[in-house]
Each structure stands twice: as C-alpha cells, then as structure tokens.
Amino acid sequence: MGKICFGVDLGGTTVKMGLFAVDGTMTDKWEIVTRKEENGKYILPDIAASIQKKIEEQGFKREEIAGIGIGVPGPATEDGTVLKCANLGWDVFNVTDELSRLTGIENIKVGNDANVAALGEMWQGGGRGYRNLVMVTLGTGVGGGVILNGKILTGSRGAAGEIGHIKVKYDETDTCGCGKTGCLEQYASATGIVKQANRALEQYRGVSSLQQKKTLTAKMIFDAAKEGDALAVKLVEEFGENLGLALAQIAQVIDPEVFVIGGGVSKAGQIILEVVRKHYEENVMFALKNKAFCLAELGNDAGIFGSAKMVLE
Amino acid sequence: MGKICFGVDLGGTTVKMGLFAVDGTMTDKWEIVTRKEENGKYILPDIAASIQKKIEEQGFKREEIAGIGIGVPGPATEDGTVLKCANLGWDVFNVTDELSRLTGIENIKVGNDANVAALGEMWQGGGRGYRNLVMVTLGTGVGGGVILNGKILTGSRGAAGEIGHIKVKYDETDTCGCGKTGCLEQYASATGIVKQANRALEQYRGVSSLQQKKTLTAKMIFDAAKEGDALAVKLVEEFGENLGLALAQIAQVIDPEVFVIGGGVSKAGQIILEVVRKHYEENVMFALKNKAFCLAELGNDAGIFGSAKMVLE
C-alpha cells in the first residue's frame, strides 16, 4: 500500500480533485475545467496530466501512490466500464484501462458519482459510524447511492441507487426526464419543488409570501415554511410525503441503518429531516420503523472523499 | 469441510429437513411436526433430535458434518438472532447458539425463510447461473428475498426483502396484516387476488365464469383469464400492474439480474411472467429495462436447498 491517493469527481462543468494521505486526511484540493469537446476525448488526458503535475510538484515516488478513484456522471459497472455518460459525450468504454494507460498507475477505481458521494458521506461525513446507508442527493435532479457492508452497491448494470426514478405518484401527467411519470425527482429535486410550487400558486386563493417572488427557488419555499406561510407549509409537507414514501419503499427492500440527505435542497436543514421522517414512519412496516436520518456534511467534497475511499478500502 | 450437511426449513406446521452431500446433491428428505406448545420451546430440541437420529442411522462421523442451515419464519440477523417469530411463539434469542448447544455441531447458519428460499432458487432452481436475484413468493402472503453477489441480503435488522409491504396503491381503505394500507401483499398474494376478485364481482355487470364459482381461488382466476373471460383478464392485468410496479421499484434500488417468481400463485405459469414483465417495463427507467424473469422451480424444497447452501458457501 502506498502513502497517498487521488480522489477525482468528474462533473459536467468541472473536475474536482483531492489528494489524500492513506489515513484519510485530505492534504490538497483543486479543480480543472471539464473539456467536453469532441465527445469528451480530452477529459481523461486532462485529468491524467493534472495528476502527473501534482505528483511532480510534490515529488512523490511511484510506489508511494496507492491509486486513483474517480466518480463519473452515469452508470459504471464494477470493472470500470461506463455505459454512456450523456452529458460528457462519452460512449461505452473502460475508464479503468484508459486512465491506467494514461497515468501508468495500476490501481484505478471507478464509480457512479452519486454512489461515490454516498461512500464519502459514510467515510467522513454525515454517515460516519454506519456501514449500511442510503444517501439521497436533492439537487437539480435526485440522485442516490446505496452502501451495504461498507461498500458501494453497483448493481448488475451499474444502475443501483437510481432512486430519483422510484415512482411516487400514479396520477401525474407531466413526464420526467427519464420518460416515465410520477418519479420522485419530479417532486423532490430543487427544480421539482419549484415546479410543484408554481402549480400550487396558480390554484391558490389565499395569501402567501411566495406570491411576491418573481422567480421561486426551493430555498424560498423552505424559508417561508419555517416562517409559517400556510402554502409553503403545505408544499413542504407534500415534499416530505413523496420523499418519505420513496425512502420507505427502499427500506422494504434493503433495510439500511441510516438515510443521509444531501444536495442543495438539504441546506434547508432540520425541517427536511422532520418532515421526511414523519412520512417515512407512516409508510414503512413495523420492523423498519425508527431508522436514523441525518444531513450530509461534505457538500461538494463528498465525491472526492468517496473516490479516495474506493482506492483505500 | 465435511462430507454432508443438513438443510432445515422451519414452518408454522411442519419442519422440512434435507440431507445434502457437499456437492449439492440432496440424498434424503423428511419432515417432522412443528410443536408450538409452550412458546415453541420444543421446536429446536425436536430438530436436534431428528438430525441426531439421521446421523446415527447413516453412521456419519462428527468430522464429516459440514454444518446445519435453518430458515425461520421471521426476521433473523446475521449472527442468528431471531427478532420474534410470532407464529412459533418465539421471543428474541440466538438460534445459532441454541442449536449448536443442542447438536454439538458448531457451524450453524440461520436465515429468514423467504431469503433462504431465494438462495435455494439461485443455487439449484429457477435462478441458476445468476448471482444477483430477487425472489418473490406469492403464497398466502407475499414474501421476498434479495441475493447480491451470491449471498443473502439480511439487512440491518433482518428485514431486507420484505417486499410484500411495498406500497403499490395510495387509495386503499382496507388494512394489510402489517397495519399499513396498499401493500403489494393485498393484491398479489393468493388471498389478495381472491379478495380483489370478490370486490370486482360485486360491481361487475357483465357475464363471467367466475360468477358460477362458490368459493374462488387464485387458480380459478388465472384459468378463466387463459380462457379469455373478460373479468378474469382484467383481474390478472391488475395483478400484473401491482406486482410489475413493485418489482420496478426494487430494480431502481438494487438493479438485480433476474426476478424469480414462486409460491402457489406462480403455478399459473407463463401468464404470470408475461403480465408482470409488461408492467415492469412500463414502470422502470431505461437502464433497467429487459431484465430476466423466471418461475421458481424447487417448490416447497427451496427452503431446504437454500438452508444447505448457507452452510456450503
């Protein structure tokens, strides 16, 4: 085992990178731009060059490098094959082999970004101390990651933890980005929350502070609910109903120890945990009640932490 | 490793037992009655005595016995602790320790009966050749088992795979045995199917062969559907909608390779696979489409096979 490793979080706009001591301490952190030109052919070479530069700057020897972990924005199988990352322009290929060839480093671990973030939160974030965890990331979309016995559940096609597309409504007429209707993502993502609020505002006969906002955000809705605005309270309740139900469905399948809630929406804080827990309890059978719920703690760094952890486990 | 092992399937009425060579061949099979008197205190001693008798009859030496696997009708954690088996009268205790003490055999593995049956089907039944499998057992209730990388997913409280209590209807007024409403078990178990049929018959204005039956069974409904009876076809379609939706929700969480459908209801055969597959596909995201579906093959022996496999893996 080496002395240091790299954790890489490959996103559609930037690549976040972290340098870690094998004891888990992050000693450096930086970003490069994700060059998506020509079907993303420059992305891995850019990452390799950036890592190479860091190795030279810090004077590491080859044998001191334990490996590189990388989280990618799409399904990835256990051997590191990506099955298309639409927003990078990538087709099907093996990231492990390619990044190994480019860097000369053999130990390369590849994971889906949401799964990797879940592993990061288990390791040094909100899920510390647990080994069986479900993380749900409420951002522009809804992502998810399942950790069982301390390891990422990848699934047979790299699509485990796609909990944003659990169906929670049967009477929805609008279509989700995935082509289905009634997906959790349509109600619990930042965009989904705003969309539901705008729908409700059209119908609403009462007075709400939300009516004065030109462009609504999820934050405004949670803030208004905290101040007792009746419409906002109702919207937050509906958000909790949908997310709580989805987490209950997940528990019926895998019986985890804890749910970690992250992503931009989770910055609303305790109000999220309260409303989700309430509806989780209503929808889950006796043996699965009283699970732990907590907020994510690593923010945008969860991916680089989790990527490093894949190498170190 | 020994030469033989025992697989035990502990049910509320009988205990099924199998003797296996370590290559997986079942060489003997027998049953004893489950004595539930005095909170089930005789059950494990009876099992131990029956195994002891078989060992003596066949003249096995201690070192030839690889171990005993046992499936129990309730949640069981990985260390063999049962968390109440209501229909045996059992409270919380460690089955591994107790059965080891009674038999003098050290290698005892304990699992929930539905999980153990899933392992059996993976090993020598409908799921042969797969390592990531979900089994759903459609009997009096709906049971489930999840196998990941060839091993039972137990869950943090032994309640993984409780898929009979996934919520599939939001407008149900009747209560499930678990206390919730709208559980899969209310629509896809043998009892549930009959109940839904009786509900439909009350409202039905057309002519159906089901109207002539004094006491309906699930088999009658599937048989009538195969003959084109319009009401029965509609009922089977609704059954498929509910089960297909539940399996889609499961796939969004764990992305298995195959679904194995067993239990008495599954004797209806291919019609089940067709209708479930159709509604699964409607409810699952692109990356999870076209999964394998198959029927269970081991019938009532799945439990003893799976119990033996726990010892041999």
Query: What is the first-to-last residue Cα distance of chain A?
Result: 11 Å
Q: How many β strands of chain A by DSSP? A: 12
Number of helices of chain A: 10
Largest interface, C-beta within 8 A: A-B, 40 and 40 residues
What is the CATH superfamily label of the largest domain in chain A?
Answer: ATPase, nucleotide binding domain
Helix proportion range of chain A? 25-40%
Reported by name, the CATH topology of the largest domain in chain A is Nucleotidyltransferase, domain 5
> Can you identify the CATH class of the largest domain in chain A?
Alpha Beta
User: Quick one: biggest sheet of chain A?
Assistant: 5 strands, mixed
Give the rounded overall mean pLDDT of chain A.
95
Structural class of chain A: alpha/beta
